[in-house]
Amino acid sequence: MSTIDRTQWHAERAKAIGASEIASIFGVGFQTPYELWARKTGHLAPPDENEAMEIGTLLQTPICELVRRRTTFTVTEAPQDTFLRSDITPFIGCTPDGRVFDPSREEDGIGVLEIKNAGHFFGKEWEEGIPLGTQCQIQCQLYVTGYRWGVAAGLIGGNKLRWHVIERDEAFIAFMVEKVREFWWHVTEDIAPPVDGSDATRRAIHEI
Q1: Under a CB-based contact definition with an 8 Å cutoff, are residues 152 and 138 in contact?
Q2: Across-strand partners of 152?
Q3: CA-CA distances (angstroms) from residue 14 to 163, 188, 195?
Q4: Rounded CA separation 167/160 (Å)
Q5: What is d(CA 99, CA 76) in angstroms, rounded to the nearest whole number?
Q6: Of the N and C termini of the chain, which has fewer Cβ atoms inside 10 Å?
Q7: Which of 110-114, 191-195, 200-204 has the highest mean pLDDT?
Q8: What is the pTM of this model?
Q9: Rounded distance between C-alpha atoms, residue 80 and residue 196, angstroms
Q10: CA dihedral defined by 183, 184, 187, 189, rounded to 10 degrees?
Q11: Which residues pair with 155 in a beta bridge?
Q12: End-to-end C-alpha distance for the chain, whole angstroms
């Protein structure tokens, strides 16, 4: 697992599938598989940072503080100039938001922390558990870091914190790695993956 400076972060991330992009391969991310492929191959420009992304970044520190106050975990915010890559599959990487420590877990006390700033629209997902896309993201982070567990914390509507512990799922990780390996083949060979019928994919095809 290797780390880099922020000046190289975007360039390095373009050479791998990051944890926040894993959900897109499974069709539950913020972009379609075709869009992700087009951006990784350079056919489409990276998406511009929108207001939600900007605010989410600014709120990361206060949300970490809320997790400290509401749980018994020791919380350490991670630098966002670090991109970790798997030594086994270097085309898979992640940038964790932080780490948590639970002294009651004797052999695996350290876990990953994923922070989300979610609007009221996504509140129900967090009430029922961890949104599927976030679960994919954390499992990817657990794979890359080697940790056994993690915490997903979502600030709902700006004033309600919801957090959940997620354990490492070896079966899902094995499936995920094979799906990403298959997707990465499409990237390295510059062969488009199967397309869906979404408007986002149609727009991407017209832009190329």
Answers
A1: yes
A2: 114, 164
A3: 30, 12, 21
A4: 23
A5: 5
A6: C
A7: 110-114
A8: 0.90
A9: 33
A10: -100
A11: 117, 161
A12: 34
d(Cα 112, Cα 114) in Å, to the nearest integer? 7
**Six-digit token pair at 133?**
């896309």
The type of residue at 208 is I
Residue type present at position 106: E
Strand 110-118 to 149-156 pairing = parallel
Is residue 118 within 8 Å of 59, Cβ to Cβ?
Answer: no
Structure-token pair, residue 201: 């994919």
CB atoms within 10 A of CB 49: 10
Task: Report the SS3 class of residue 208.
Answer: coil
Alpha carbon 43 to chain centroid, angstroms: 22
**Are 18 and 10 in contact, with CB atoms under 8 Å apart?**
no
- Predicted confidence (pLDDT) per residue in 101-160, tens digit: 999 998 899 999 999 998 777 677 888 889 999 999 999 999 999 999 999 999 998 889
Q: Which of 178, 159, 171, 164 is nearest to 115 (CA)?
A: 164
Alpha-carbon dihedral sign for residues 186, 189, 190, 195: negative
Helices (H), the chain: 9-13, 19-25, 33-40, 51-58, 60-70, 123-128, 132-145, 170-189, 199-207
Q: Which residue has the tokens 């567990």?
A: 149
Amino acid 43 reads H
For residues 171 and 173, what is the distance between their CA atoms, to the nearest angstrom?
5
